[in-house]
Amino acid sequence: MTAVARVSTVGVVAKSHLHEATPHLVSVESWLRERGIGALFETATAALMPADARRRVADKAQLARDADLVAVLGGDGTLLSMADSIGAAGSSVPILGVNFGSLGFLTEVTLPELYPALDAAVTGRAPVEDRMMLRSSTLRASGGIPDFIALNDVVITKAARSRMIDLSVSVGDEFVTRVKADGLIVATPTGSTAYNLAAGGPIVQPTLESLILTPIAPHTLTNRPIVIPAGSAVRVQPNIDERDELFVTFDGQAGFQLRAGDEIRICRAERPLRLIRPSTRSYFEVLRQKLKWGER
Q1: Residue 68 among the catalytic residues
Q2: Radius of gyration in angstroms for the set of CA atoms belonging to the chain, rounded to a whole number
Q3: pLDDT digits over 81-93, tens only?
């Protein structure tokens, strides 16, 4: 683990339309001003606050480039959205998650812990974990598909009324298997407790460097999840005909419909996400607290 370097500007992002966050946002702004630290509010977040001519506002991409630290008030979805923006910007800005949701594996800091956690972060006392991210590229004959960065997972799935889908999966240059299922999840260890877990995949400690391939509702008992080294690139070729509707999504934040002939390539992103973990709770304590893991 590393620590946060000197902080002169803190970016602040809250869950969209989370009006319960308004008094906390105003209080965070005052707290930062009292310490001579600049605050940079994400555009939709600033809209939750009373008008102030002194307030600096930016979109997520600009915030990822200009802030020395980002504090997220919301649930894991809010943090994922900001994390993906940080990855897309090629930034190494660390991120602190404060939980306004009901579960919060990534936003594990509670509201009562907000200011001790923020103080530890801005003074460089908070530990920072590197969490690997995914880069997904889609090869299409007509081109024009941008790469996407994801912290949790890349998911290939069917539309609600579609039949079982057929995916050819390779690791590196080696063909591995054909997955006949409702879809396929390619997850990071961080994402192992998200959709991967709901689909029956394994829990993987988030500081490990690996990829998890988990079929969604496979139509054969021999299609089981597998964990592979993070240095291995995964290639997925959907076998699509005119009756199929397949989609690829990235952290549940973005996605698009696939076409016949598309190939999705998923590998470890060049930069990890730097996640601030000022809490004294260990990962296994978080599992027990959030999932009631190991309890009867």
Answers
A1: no
A2: 20
A3: 999 999 999 999 9
